[in-house]
Amino acid sequence: MSKTAVSASAGHASTQPSHSQVPGAAVGFRARRRRPGMYALAIALIAAGGGGGVLAFQATGERTQVLAVARDVEAGDVIKDSDLIEAAVQLDPALKPVLASEREDVIGKRAAVALTPGALLTKGQVTDHTLLKPGQRLVGIGLKPSQMPASRLSPGDKVLVVSTPADGQSVTGKDGEDTGPRQIAARIVRVGERQQNIGEQVVDVVVPSEFGPVLAAQAATGNVAIVLDGPGGS
User: Which CATH number does the domain 136-228 belong to among 1.10.260, 2.60.40, 2.30.30, 2.40.30?
Assistant: First the structure.
């Protein structure tokens, strides 16, 4: 090899800068050395954030054992132990559910309204009162769709039970005058399921004692109709 070639090769090799001579090399090296520390800091921050999320969930996710309805209970029926189940829920200040610890206080009382399976039991749905008060009688009336409003009837509704004389007959008084249909003020306490085979639905109503036998006799003929009373009605 000639001296010229060796000199050129040596000159070429001498022109290669070392790491210490490359601008920014030290900075890049130091940056790479910092990365493990940055990773550790990031992991610590994520862990801290996750821990805060768990604490927030624990604070907002606290649940309370309350009573719920296990099966249908008609208004006025006595509530049995088998009618109730326990559920864990977050309490809402707007609700007043019956706590699971109050189960024994509820059993043996009556449903103030119809209870639906899956619904929470609230204090306003339970009562100590019986269906009947002194001086009242309970009468069941079988009704077809044409004998009551299409609007759903519910326990507690105030209604008028109106006699509907057979075709060609009229309601007359002692003097033979047409007195119009007889009507009796009543309160609904239960609405039965419609019987598909006959299309009839039994509605239980409470009336004053003196009208009980009269209404029962009239209801047996099928010549009655229910009229829904408005607010402040009889």
Answer: 2.40.30
